[in-house]
Amino acid sequence: MNSRRLLLVDGDPTVHEQLTGLLKRDDRHILTASDGVEAIDRLRESAFDLVVAGPDRNGFDELKLLRRALAVRPETRVIVTGSQDPVRAIAALRWGAYAYFHTPIPGSALADMAQQALDSSSWRDEIRLVSARPEWIALEVRAKLEAAERTTQ
């Protein structure tokens, strides 16, 4: 069995426990980071199959982490968690997030999305942000049900 590596990043230790319990499987090795600096250091050391990026408490927000993570490891799938601000969700999609979840995080939906991200072989060009304003987003989605589901969390 191939072990999948996940990195959970959030400034709240309670969120680490919640996400670890939610995403733990026999075939997964889960590491945590409490801030973006620690997360980027871990990404520089080795690759991860999935990063779940939430806010930290040191001013290194989840969008900055997304951009830096993809600069270090462009192949990494990153699920971003954050506020219900549509501008931030749009930015995350524009910058290459696999998916964006508003907080509070819906547990089973995140677990399903994580599994989908780990199973996905070609995902980079499945969703293209055509235009966006906070009240209206136009997406181009390839004809894959999994890609369409990533836009509706």
Please name the defining characteristics of this protein.
153 residues; alpha/beta; five-stranded parallel beta sheet; two-stranded antiparallel ribbon; 25% strand; globular
What features would you describe in this structure?
By secondary structure, the protein is of the alpha/beta class. Helices cover 39% and strands 25% of the residues. It is built from six helices and seven strands. The strands form two sheets. A five-stranded parallel beta sheet has the order 2-1-3-4-5, sandwiched between helices. A two-stranded antiparallel ribbon has the order 6-7. The longest helix has 13 residues, at 107-119. The radius of gyration is 14 Å and the shape is globular. The model has no long low-confidence stretch (mean pLDDT 86).
